[in-house]
Amino acid sequence: MLCSFTLAFGFTAEAGSLTVRRVFGPEIKTGPYKHPARLEELANGDLYLVYYGGEGEYAASTAVFGSRLRKGSQRWTKPVVIAQDPFRSLGNGVIWQAPDGVVWLFYVVRHGKTWSTSKVQAKISRDHAKTWSDAFPLVEQEGMMVCNRPIVLHNADYLLPIYHETGHDTEFTGFDSTSLFLRYEVAKKQWKQTGPIRAAVGSIQAAAVEVSPHHLIAYSRRCGNYESTTNGWVVRSESRDGGWTWTEGKNSAFPNPNAAIDFIKLRSGSLLLVYNDSMNDRTPLTLALSNDQDRTYPYRRNVAEGPHDYAYPLAIQAKDGRIHLIFTSHERTIINHATLDEDWVVNGGPVKNWIAK
């Protein structure tokens, strides 16, 4: 059973329900482009989102913006610049709070005309994203980018998804593009790069979960162009050594229109995949739930569907157990925030809505 797309003003939602709220649109004067949006629940209970904004994806001047939804509030704060470069354009930002309380901002700096010239920088905050350190380089190899949040492994190390994009083309990503990870060894306070996920169709923007100690599963976006196809699938890979090396990426059972996905492990042990259930369009935006460690996904439900694009999802599970899903729509001009729970994916339930026009 699938649910049609709706937007809601309400933030809280009872068990077995879905609420989708419009966060920002063209009325926010950071430029029409707001994409992709990334979200974190901070240790103080606030929600914090970031996006990179400006006049367009390849605009000469873009910056990473941050906004906060204070615990108990219904209103997001006005977005403010938290990263910019006077000489270069910025790209994807990722916000994440580590177990030790340090908030990390990872983001892309584009050195040339295409994303294949990018490098990754970072900032940290020790006061719940109120103030930030100076920027420092995280990956200086050309063509490196970030998109999804780190995970914490069973031994407390962090695993940050990164990817190497090739092609030097605004409408085609090279098939030799690869997903990789940076592993932060907490004891050494050091990031180390892991082996890549290679696939015949390319692999970028992976998201991974650790299903058991040292055993990880990753799903990632395929590469290529945006022409119609009958053979476009989300890429799947596995690691048996804690994410240091990965099997060759293979087509999964999930279609992919050359668009971002997310994949998280819930506290119940269930796995949640968020993807566009289409090979050619970024609609619908679908949740698929597995309760048998990725063997089957019997529960699928659409959060958003219709004539617009609903893309670049990112999901987190908050301390209260609810799932927060952030995604952009309307040609990357609107940021949306959905709240739901596992029961809604399995059984459905009421939808609090305001239909977007």
What's the rounded overall pLDDT mean?
Answer: 93
CATH architecture title: 6 Propeller
Main β-sheet: number of strands, strand sense, barrel status?
5 strands, mixed
The residue fraction in helices comes out at under 10%
Total domain units: 1
Give a verbal description of the structure:
There is one protein chain. The chain is mainly beta and 357 residues long. It has a single domain, classed as Neuraminidase, CATH 2.120.10. It contains one helix and 27 strands. A five-stranded mixed β-sheet has the order 24-25-26-1-27. Strands 2, 3, 4, 5 and 6 form a five-stranded antiparallel β-sheet that branches. Strand 7 and strand 8 form a beta hairpin. The two termini are 24 Å apart. The N terminus is likely disordered.
Features:
single chain; 357 residues; five-stranded antiparallel β-sheet; 27 strands; globular; disordered N terminus
Topology:
Layout: E1 18-24, E2 33-34, E3 38-41, E4 47-54, E5 63-69, E6 80-83, E7 89-97, E8 103-110, E9 118-125, E10 136-139, E11 144-146, E12 151-152, E13 158-164, E14 178-185, E15 190-193, E16 204-212, E17 215-221, E18 233-239, E19 250-255, E20 262-265, E21 271-276, E22 285-290, E23 299-304, E24 310-317, E25 323-329, E26 334-340, H1 342-347, E27 351-352
Parallel strand pairs: 1-27
Antiparallel strand pairs: 1-26, 2-4, 3-4, 4-5, 5-6, 7-8, 8-9, 9-10, 11-13, 12-13, 13-14, 14-15, 16-17, 17-18, 18-19, 20-21, 21-22, 22-23, 24-25, 25-26
